[in-house]
Specification:
The protein is an alpha+beta fold and about 220 residues long. It is built from five helices and nine strands. Helix 1 packs antiparallel against helix 2 (about 60-80), helix 1 packs antiparallel against helix 4 (about 130-160) and helix 2 (about 60-80) packs antiparallel against helix 3 (about 85-115). It is elongated.
Length: about 220
């Protein structure tokens, strides 16, 4: 007998949705951090302060990564609600994973670059401090990488076909046997006439076949 066509589970939104939501939040955080301040210089003795934003450096690159990840993850979200195309969901998740990797590398490189600079100001050496925007880029990128990877593997698991049903004659079972497997039968004694009768184990209320007494478990 020919193999039956394999089927795939298509309604698996609850499985990946929590990680997808976190990944979307992380991608938005990546964009916010990209346009935020990356470095700050503050000289306490002269009350001099200056900050540099991400747009002055690699922030444009990380902003593009955040936009790409957000678009890809929204695509995954829509495909999940439509209930299908796990292969496409895998590809889109990969885009978010790559964006997370590149965003993290750019953020770490930015931190190293900021901490390696120093300048002389009125005879004192001052060093810039890493600002919140750069920290947000790194944290969001790492979070995006982790959660998007989980979404990818969950989508890949759901894309694997189920094994075909074996309907060969030697494995076939009768209707009575199938019913018994799905709804096991047990012997129950009537509390009134004390005669036993066969009742499905899932049944909670029934009528005694001997004395017509209403019974329940």
């Amino acid at each position: 007998m020919a193999d039956q066509p394999s089927t795939r589970r298509t309604d698996f939104g609850p499985l990946y949705l929590p990680n997808l939501i976190v990944a979307l939040v992380a991608s938005v955080g990546l964009m916010i951090g990209s346009i935020g301040p990356w470095a700050t210089v503050f000289a306490r003795s002269s009350f001099f302060a200056r900050s540099w934003g991400g747009m002055d450096g690699d922030g444009i690159f990380t902003l593009i990564m955040g936009i790409a990840a957000t678009a890809a993850l929204f695509g995954v979200l829509n495909l999940g609600f439509m209930g299908g195309k796990p292969k496409l969901m895998m590809y889109l998740s990969n885009v978010a994973v790559i964006a997370g990797v590149l965003g993290a590398l750019a953020g770490i490189n930015g931190i190293i670059s900021v901490r390696s600079h120093s300048a002389e100001f009125f005879g004192k050496t001052i060093r810039p401090e890493v600002a919140w925007g750069l920290w947000l880029v790194v944290i969001s990128s790492v979070t995006l990488l982790a959660t998007a990877t989980i979404v990818y593997y969950q989508a890949r698991k759901e894309s694997e076909p189920l094994p075909p049903l074996d309907l060969s004659p030697e494995n076939a079972i009768g209707t009575d046997e199938l019913i018994e497997q799905l709804n096991p039968i047990g012997s129950v004694k009537c509390s009134k006439c004390e005669k036993s009768q066969a009742v499905a184990t899932t049944t909670t209320k029934w009528v005694c076949t001997h004395c017509r007494q209403n019974l329940n478990r």
